[in-house]
Amino acid sequence: MRRVCYVSSVTTGTGARREGATHKGEKRRRLLPGLAVGDGFTRHPFDVANGVRTSGLVAGRHLKSGHRHDRHATAYYGVAPSVFQALVRRWRRSGPAAPLEEFTFVDMGAGMGRAVLLAAEMPFRDVVGVELNATLARIARRNLAVWRAAGRARAAARIVCGDAAEFKLRGGPCLAFLFNPFGAPVMRRLLAQIAESFAGKPGQLDLLYVNNEQESVLEGRAGFVRLYLGQVSRSRADAIADHAILANQPEGEYASANYEDCSIWRWVG
Ligand SMILES: C[S@@+](CC[C@H](N)C(=O)[O-])C[C@H]1O[C@@H](n2cnc3c(N)ncnc32)[C@H](O)[C@@H]1O
User: Fold this and answer.
1) Is this prediction's pTM over 0.85?
2) What is the set of domains in the chain, with CATH numbers?
3) Which atom of ligand 1 is nearest to the CA of 67?
4) Would you give per-residue pLDDT tens digits along the chain (269 residues)?
5) Measuring CA to CA, how many Å separate 226 from each of 36, 52, 100, 189, 208?
6) Beta-strand pair 104-108/126-131
């Protein structure tokens, strides 16, 4: 993973590792480094406003599940709500095969579920988040419960703990969402799975890709056409929040820009 580009296409620092550091949150730190105040944790305003927990930056090397695809995981970081919403708006203008109400939204690499929460506010047929790491999946489920209790979920939504590349997509119109979850080997497997599930169903699968580091894998795969490639701006509030959060990382691996490189693809095979 080119960390320079991971979160949002910018340069990384070379801060020294603090693997051995001790502090009050040591127990939690051992479970998932990056989610304790001592790890540089800062709450995103999305969490503060909504009473959920989607903040934090967990480097890929800490996302162990025992699955062979662990080594291709990039990191956990929640998508900027403004980028997510702008990309979905752009997709809706792209002439999808069916109304949004008939689409299943699937977040491939759902993390703590920020994109799932945002999608669940829209009238999708249903919303699924697939997450490989059990701890993140558990947090995402709790967040969904908060969302439902607050009356924010318009769509039925659930979190599945497992490998996105093995997740069986059902036949109806589907909108897959990826916020740079994994490297090329897993991306290739996912696209092969899509090709198999949607053979003979052109237009039934669209894909939104934020921080599209593996764009060339899609470019090299027959059966997909690109509808959009460009930079989607963060809102001012998201830019300020993400800059502040990433400025606090003890290891200084990632940095943030005011936009995300994004693409939209349609399956036509
Ligand atoms: C950058 S985070 C995106 C989180 C969420 N989609 C969002 O936008 O807020 C990427 C997530 O993908 C997960 N991931 C990585 N490889 C995966 C795989 N093979 N299957 C499912 N999830 C995976 C990571 O654990 C991480 O939580």
Assistant:
1) yes
2) 76-267 (3.40.50.150)
3) 19
4) 235 344 443 333 222 233 333 344 444 445 577 777 677 678 899 999 999 999 988 989 999 889 999 999 999 999 999 999 999 999 999 999 999 999 999 999 999 999 999 999 999 999 999 999 999 999 999 999 999 999 999 999 999 999 999 999 987 999 999 999 999 999 999 999 999 999 999 999 999 999 999 999 999 999 999 999 999 999 999 999 998 888 877 777 788 889 999 999 999 99
5) 39, 34, 19, 19, 10
6) parallel
Task: Give the distance (Å) from ligand 1 centre to CA of residue 111.
Answer: 5
CA dihedral 184, 189, 193, 195 (to 10 degrees): 60
25 vs 47: CA distance, rounded Å: 20
- Order of strands across the sheet with 156-161? 156-161, 126-131, 104-108, 174-179, 205-210, 259-267, 224-233
Q: Residue 136 C-alpha to ligand 1 middle, in angstroms?
A: 9
Question: Looking at this protein, which amino acid is placed at residue 227?
Answer: L
Distance CA 38, CA 208 (A): 34
Torsion of CA 211, 155, 32, 250, to 10 degrees: 40
DSSP state of 182: B
> Is ligand 1 within 6 A of the CB of residue 181?
yes
Contact by Cβ (8 Å): 256, 10: yes
154: left (phi over 0), alpha (psi -120 to 50) or beta: alpha
The dihedrals phi and psi of 238, each to the nearest 5 degrees, come to -70, -40
